[in-house]
Amino acid sequence: MALFVQKYGGSSVADAECMRRVARRIRDTQKAGNRVVVVVSAMGDTTDDLIALAKQVNPYPDEREMDMLLATGEMASSAVLTMALQAQGVKAISVTGRQAGIHVDSTHLKAKIEQIDPERIKRHLAQGYVVVVAGFQGINRDNDVATLGRGGSDTTAVALAAALKADRCQVLKDVEGVFTANPRVVPGARKMDEITYDEMLELASSGAEVLQSRAVEFAKKYGVVLEVLSSFVVKPGTLVREEVEEMESVIIRGIAADKNQAKVTLRAVPDKPGVAAGIFKALAAANLNIDMIVQNMSEDGRTDLSFTLPADDLHKAQAVLEPIMKKAKAADVHFDTGIAKVSIVGVGMKSHSGVAFKMFDILAANKINIEMISTSEIKISVVIRAADADRAVRALHDTFGLSRKPKAKAAAKKAPAKKRG
Amino acid sequence: MALFVQKYGGSSVADAECMRRVARRIRDTQKAGNRVVVVVSAMGDTTDDLIALAKQVNPYPDEREMDMLLATGEMASSAVLTMALQAQGVKAISVTGRQAGIHVDSTHLKAKIEQIDPERIKRHLAQGYVVVVAGFQGINRDNDVATLGRGGSDTTAVALAAALKADRCQVLKDVEGVFTANPRVVPGARKMDEITYDEMLELASSGAEVLQSRAVEFAKKYGVVLEVLSSFVVKPGTLVREEVEEMESVIIRGIAADKNQAKVTLRAVPDKPGVAAGIFKALAAANLNIDMIVQNMSEDGRTDLSFTLPADDLHKAQAVLEPIMKKAKAADVHFDTGIAKVSIVGVGMKSHSGVAFKMFDILAANKINIEMISTSEIKISVVIRAADADRAVRALHDTFGLSRKPKAKAAAKKAPAKKRG
After folding, report:
1. What ipTM goes with this model?
2. Do the chains contact at B78 and A68, CB–CB below 8 Å?
3. Is the whole model's pTM more than 0.90, yes or no?
4. Which of residues 9-38 of B touch A (CB under 8 A)?
5. Mean pLDDT by 10 residues, chain A (421 residues)
6. Which CATH superfamily does the domain covering A3-174 fall into?
7. Does the distance separating the beta carbons of B61 and A83 come in below 8 Å?
8. CA A14 to the chain's CA centroid
């Protein structure tokens, strides 16, 4: 008897009708001979509505209280989904993050899971229940509820799958899986059958919104086989798993664009040891997530320094940078929100050269100017004008031939294939 | 430094503006030199909305899951009110029923408080916090949340006041206190300055909706001084307290009418020992709350039996009675929803005779027919036609002179006054 952890997002449980549909899906999974643990997000826009309510009474709501407020969304949806399951004749019970034994650190609004004691879930599974867990939340050492941050329910699901040694963690969404590019931008975008953890991580951190990086990291760390699939249609989705050798035959797995980035340029910064370090130390201390960094050639002992960060963090960055710039006697700071980051990702890059060249060539042929470049072993990212982003993604998708389904290699050429997750 | 427990109902915290107003009220109470524990209900119609949502997915929702769902309403409002307090510069923290140490029995939807461990609240009070407690809920032995039933937040407040040995438990409402009669029916109805626990209990069980009987019972049991007052206007409300001798100078304290009663008449029931007992045993087993009972004189070994119960329970009573009536070969059952129960309440009745006679006389003078009568030491209730109820209340209020403020007696005549709560 296999054990499945299924995670349903907010749009899958937005109203009573959605709840009934999800309940039937879970019932069918159980009837097929599986034990099922369900992780559920808050219904529809509940979380956003609660945030808006909080801001009405307090423009800077306390993080502990915000967690107390937000966690109620998932508690409520877990109870309602359980009622819907019971209406389908399924023996079901809801549990909060606390009851699920999810212990987190003491950071509010973006708590990290420290430990899971899934005894209560195991007991209910042994009693024949479908266990419906309120996602996105855990309990900290102060005995307070804390939430895991945006997309936290994915992390709840993967962490529970790891703790319960589940056979698979299914993330059910309003998309059919992970696509080679955003189908709204690229009509020929194709659903992948499989993708490695590392590729998924690179895509997630490059603007693909299908899975949270943290959930994928967790899955990789504990070898949880993840599947992203449709909550509307019953058909296989995309498996996220350990790399197996045949996956390397694919050079580019997918393309992502992130338009929520901004570029900050510090002009005429003194080019002395420690100046750049001081700037990035201050930005890190303010919890700002700096992505790409470029430093120009020095002129007259001064240099320009550019970096990207999420556009939402711009005002925070500004507050950090102003005193530093004054102290460093830098000329000025320039903020640019008109950029996009376009990334191509694939484990096959490791064994193929010339991929970066091909990417730049395609962009040049389309008269798209590259402002910044960064690369990892399996990813190449460029910063371009936001207005060029969709065109760039379509051109790359087309020229790298991502619409075609990759063929499985007939014979392994290199090291023996790793065991499948 | 006095300790106040303040309870705010759903209509007092219905939206952000209400929350801000309540927060200012609490801030002022604290600034006046008091420690404050706040108990809060769910915002506005939240509880009804959640019940409606549950019924959409399951016409017969599981009680445990219903509790899980409903308890989120108070958790959310406690967090929002805490944020509103913080916006007013008040050091505040919210706690759930669980964190407040409220332990309940294992009945869902109408759990009873078994024990309170207020250690966490005491700790936060010592740290200078206003502690905002999610009302209406506790934690049972299965580690599950359970709710206390309608009006349960009043009970939470009184129980916490008892456990914390608070100086006063204030129930803040959209009325200014307890009135001698419903001001919507009797224009001359007067807000009382004080009322005894027993009188309040009788009024509460007679249709006055200002306080839940259970909360008053709790207050009486633990000697908690209760005050019902307006959440809108800052002025003294009505004190509910132990009887002190001068209170006995008031013969009739208040008048209540309950139009949500129904009368059931069983015709031609065999007048044999055990038959009536069997009927009421069956009704009690079905958790039906029977109020007044009248048995007519027997004729030909058969009798008519009438009783009243909440009109909402009629269909339940019907299901219980039908098989019994068949078995007892009773002629038929008659249901009458066109009745009202009108009650006059006052501890002074104990030492004054002729009150019942006066009541019947007033009703007769107004051509109002009495169908049933029941009395206790401090209450006389009559069942009349619902259409006559408002007229009856006005006539009684007028003739018993309830619009006039009672004078405190100059000298005690009987036993020495009990210590004031």
Report:
1. 0.85
2. yes
3. no
4. 16, 19-20, 23
5. 96 96 97 97 97 97 97 98 98 98 94 96 98 98 94 95 98 94 95 95 89 92 96 94 81 94 90 83 88 82 89 90 82 91 93 90 96 92 96 96 76 44 38
6. Acetylglutamate kinase-like (3.40.1160.10)
7. yes
8. 21
